[in-house]
## 1
Amino acid sequence: MSPIPFSLYIHIPWCIRKCPYCDFNSHSAPKELPEKAYVRALLEDLESELPHIWGRKLESIFIGGGTPSLFSADSIDELITGIHALLPFRPNIEITMEANPGTFEQERFKGFREAGINRLSIGIQSFNQQHLKALGRVHSNTEALQAAEIATAAGFDNYNLDLMFGLPQQTQEQALRDLEQTIELSPTHLSWYQLTLEPNTAFHKHPPVLPEDDLIAGIQLTGQDLISTSDYTQYEVSAYAQTGKECRHNLNYWEFGDYIGIGAGAHGKVTLADQSVTRYTKYRQPTQYLRQVEAGQPRSSEHQLSETDLKFEFMLNALRLRNGFSTELFQQRTGLAQQDIEKELELAISRDLLIMNNQRIRPTEHGWLYLNEVIQLFLED
Ligand SMILES: C[S@@+](CC[C@H](N)C(=O)[O-])C[C@H]1O[C@@H](n2cnc3c(N)ncnc32)[C@H](O)[C@@H]1O
Ligand code: SF4
């Protein structure tokens, strides 16, 4: 098996304004974004990580947020050039950037493409004006439709559209119409998330009326039928792709690969030479993060994963994949042996939750519906 793949996540923590459902580390943008200072800090942050990853080549980069498309093409160019000066890239590296429809201008997007971004992830959420308003989005349905067109004209032939369902007062017809409109645009990738009410969000404090569970289940079933009769295959709980267009960066998370995280609140996971696995987090508040980078200490916490953590976290990720994982992958990514999960596997197989075929383990149809239960089995002694 080839060495553990290695990727880079970059967090840009600002948005035009905070959406009421969002619990990501995103903050309303100040009048003047400290773009230059932040790009400099990101590169210093990356430099501080280099001793842990000497000699490794990057498979993918993901610039997420927040709203990275608030940054200028020049800043993104400076960032990618700076990263390349510090780390070697694999020849066909995937470089994704998240973009919000309200921030789309064709010229800027051409600039992002020229800076080396070769994949966009566009946060559409819905094409329905009433739902966009209920979600507190800053873009209109026309801008949502134009975003894909502008991306294509700017030279992006690989892009994802993010869509949510189970929106306030949404009917099944409306949810399916959103999906149909998405499919008509023919993105290479589609992420279809159920809206969840997250603690510490405005929606959690003042919950909107969401569709009943039965209606949500109906939307999910009919929606999946619609997607699968189109050009897309589901490969993860919320991710659908045209053939060969799975998101390599996210696949690396789900396959328990390594990644560096730079930027406010970013996480990383690195396997060291002695096979131990460390996870760490960067300071979350943008101003504190900038100060901490200057002081040479951007990590706010770090810990080494125990054997129980490794088993559980591997399953938490890999069982999200429709085709599961090979036992070889489990051994390589955790440093554990197959017999370390034998008991849990036998139990899950006897309950018709997992199936093992040619050393490949994946959820059964039944297990796919009760993934949390399956994953919990690997947490127990
Ligand atoms: C990191 S977010 C932000 C991307 C981009 N800033 C945007 O909003 O368009 C990535 C995606 O997570 C999804 N998401 C965010 N909050 C969610 C929630 N509470 N429930 C379900 N999906 C959510 C949205 O589809 C969003 O596009
Ligand atoms: S624009 Fe995206 S990241 Fe920003 S608050 Fe809204 S959902 Fe969160």
Note: Residues 15, 18-19, 22, 24, 26, 65-67, 100, 123 surround iron/sulfur cluster (ligand 2) (CB under 6 Å).
## 2
Amino acid sequence: MWDEKYSAQHYVYGKEPNAFLAAHAVELPPGEVLCLAEGEGRNAVYLAGQGFNVTALDLSPVGLDKAQRLAAEKGVEIDTICADLAEFKLGSARWDAIVSIFGHLPPDVRRQVYANIPGALKPGGVLLLEAYTPEQMGRGTGGPRSVDLLVTAAMLRDELPGLEFLHLEEREREVVEGAGHTGLASVVQLIARKP
Ligand SMILES: C[S@@+](CC[C@H](N)C(=O)[O-])C[C@H]1O[C@@H](n2cnc3c(N)ncnc32)[C@H](O)[C@@H]1O
């Protein structure tokens, strides 16, 4: 499904970074960043341009090829990993920051990935995440069509044990991030730090 979507000539979510990430990238500690479910690479490429060492992970090789093309276009380097988050090992105290932008996963996979994020962050490492909430259902402005893939602030608090929540908010905002995400949307935004 994702390969087919990304086989379009244009960048489905655009070439510019997610607005929440761009507004808060200064809060990420310098170093190694893992971008989960990063698709065509707009966020990874942006962070590389800010001086981070970035690895973009996604299960779509077509998306990751476009991510490397975007990196070359912007004159930066990123690493890519083509993997399914259901199986990928995030590592132990490996990352200074983990970024997840609209990385909607089936509940069992999501719980497992989220449970492993605190251990994968270095002490002082930061998770930055934006996702659609169940309020997004039926809006027609982007996001998954299945409510099971959507998350609330309460779910994030429950499923990310051991992190200090610096910012956790459900809100409405205008999302204009490629043809795939355009219009008023219900999102949850999170910045959390490993003590
Ligand atoms: C809505 S797109 C978001 C892409 C990117 N984060 C962005 O903001 O432009 C969701 C991405 O999740 C990826 N994805 C879905 N399930 C995945 C899984 N199990 N493992 C890795 N990536 C996955 C898809 O390939 C797709 O690129």
Note: The first helix runs from residue 2 to 6.
